[in-house]
Amino acid sequence: MLRNASLLSVWLLAAAACSSETPGKIVSVVWQLERASEPSFELPNGFHVQLEEARVGVSALYAFAPLESDVKAQAWRWLSGVSVAHAHGGIDPESGRRVRAELLEPVLIDLLASDAEPLPPVAAEAGAIDALKIELAQSGAAGELHGGSAFLRGEAERDGVRFGFQASVVLGAPPKARSIDLTGLRGQLDDGSVLHVRVNPAAWLSHAELDRLAAPASDEPVEIGADTQVGRALVIGVRSPEAFELEVTAGDKGKS
């Protein structure tokens, strides 16, 4: 038992010694939520789609430190006896991973807006990140999302047949039912870094069989029901990792 404890101490010392960073340095970063595609696009099944409205609500964002870096940081704190005060989220209770930066204010993203506005700066922990967790807004609220976590309206055309459609995408209430995990990322947070979170609404419809929608009885758009193939495909598409991407840039503050 003593031998195992000694080995653990040696390992922790090595982990801390190998770390090139001192955990806990607080910096200022900016989240910026943007669209990743144009409102006009082609689907794999030959439909051309022109979106007229596309919005999604985000309730929280979490950027995680790499697991290796997380172990080194814990070893450093244990050996140094220093209590590090985190201005960000500390540890994510669901995954147990260390949070470098977080956004906890609900945000509505207009995916047809031409210019994305950066959000106010927030405190974060400097260092590498390799994963992002996105928590979409809870369904049910009135307003621009029409009771869903996402809303889209547009026109689809194939072989000369054109029709309008719209859908409010309702997700489950538990956070797990509204979460998306992006892994295998590469990024470095420094003072002034900008975390660009981009949403691709074309991915929402990538597996939707729009030809299975009932023909509209008038010029009004087809209301996509949750119990249809297209409605189910939208629930999957809105939560697909393919619908999101993250890029970290230095920003004006980091370039000075």
| Oligomer kind | single chain
Helix content: 10-25%
User: Total number of β-strand segments?
Assistant: 14
Mean pLDDT: 84
Helix segment count?
4
* Structural domain tally: 1
Radius of gyration, taken over Cα atoms and rounded to an integer in Å: 22 Å
The major β-sheet equals: 10 strands, mixed
What topology does this entry show?
Layout: H1 2-18, E1 26-35, E2 40-42, E3 48-64, H2 67-80, E4 90-91, E5 98-103, E6 107-110, E7 122-125, E8 127-136, E9 150-158, E10 161-169, E11 179-189, E12 194-199, E13 222-223, H3 229-238, E14 244-249, H4 251-255
Parallel strand pairs: 1-12, 10-13
Antiparallel strand pairs: 1-7, 2-3, 3-5, 3-6, 3-8, 3-9, 4-5, 8-11, 9-10, 12-14
Explain this structure.
The protein has one domain (21-66, 89-255). The protein is α+β, with helices and mostly antiparallel strands and 256 residues long. It is built from 4 helices and 14 strands. Residues 1-21 and 75-87 have low confidence and may be disordered. A hairpin with a 6-residue loop joins β4 and β5 (98-103). α1 packs across α2 (67-80). The strands form 2 sheets. Strands 2, 3, 4, 5, 6, 8, 9, 10, 11 and 13 form a 10-stranded mixed beta sheet that branches. Strands 7-1-12-14 form a 4-stranded mixed beta sheet, with no helix packed on it.
